[in-house]
Design brief:
Layout: H1 18-32, H2 48-58, E1 70-75, H3 78-99, H4 102-108, H5 119-122, E2 125-132, E3 134-138, E4 141-144, H6 148-166, E5 169-170, H7 180-184, E6 191-200, H8 216-219
Antiparallel strand pairs: 1-2, 2-6, 3-4, 5-6
This protein binds 3-iodo-tyrosine.
């Protein structure tokens, strides 16, 4: 065996017939198509084990040179949630009153968002996804991570799919700027906040905007 393959192991996977693949791919699509961003949460507790499973699913995402350049901070402490809400609302207040363009504000109208973020205190868990822009193994010695945004974006997608699969809901929240999260959660200098994701059960009878998704003719271009 060549040197390169010495530390390779057999890849084991589940296999399906073409017919099974068609059924599985369609039913997974239909399942994922039911995912919606929800802004109204219940405060009903969620078992921590579920959160662990969801995050470990996110952490199976591919990453540049398998550096897994992510840290998931899970906030359930009411005082910390309150501080996060206050800091996010302070930033959003500025966003909605001058920092966002008129076009941007118009584009957001269908979602009825505003600077008030009660979900940051109501949802039982806030998952704060941090990207790790580098690693420090020894003092003053930086080790590179690669394709950090792509890698953490993929992990975020896996996270949302796992939340949906567990039967919970999430809101992909990107208060900006987000550096207040590093301070409030006392994160090290190599980490930058990437996404803030409240997770939990939806409130009773939640509503979501009446959206449609692009069809396959709009998102797929085949080159046969
Ligand atoms: N960060 C703001 C504004 C906002 C921006 C986009 I683009 C959205 O899809 C939704 C909201 C907020 O969280 O309200």
């Amino acid at each position: 065996m060549s040197e390169q393959t010495e530390n390779f192991i057999p890849y084991v996977r589940d296999t399906y017939s073409e017919e099974e693949m068609k059924v599985r791919s369609q039913s997974f699509y239909e399942f994922m198509d039911k995912r919606r961003t929800v802004r109204e949460f219940s405060d009903k507790p969620v078992p921590r084990e579920v959160i662990d499973h969801i995050i470990m699913t996110a952490s199976t995402a591919p990453s540049g040179a398998h550096k897994q350049p992510w840290t998931f901070c899970v906030v359930s402490n009411p005082e910390v949630k309150k501080k996060i809400r206050e800091a996010a609302e302070a930033e959003e207040e500025v966003n909605y009153n001058g920092r966002m363009s008129d076009e941007w504000l118009k584009d957001l109208e269908p979602f009825a968002t505003n600077e008030h973020k009660p979900f940051l205190e109501i949802a039982p868990y806030l998952i704060v996804v941090f990207k790790r822009v580098f690693e420090t193994e020894e003092e003053h010695k930086k080790k590179n991570n690669y394709y950090v945004n792509e890698s953490v974006g993929l992990a975020g997608g896996f996270l949302l799919a796992a939340i949906h699969h567990a039967g919970l809901v999430a809101l992909t929240h990107t208060p900006s700027p987000m550096n207040f999260l590093s301070n409030l959660l006392d994160r090290p200098a190599n980490e930058r906040a990437f996404l803030l994701i409240p997770v939990g059960y939806p409130a009773d009878n939640p509503t979501v905007p009446d959206l449609t998704r692009k069809g396959k003719e709009d998102v797929i271009v085949y080159y046969d």
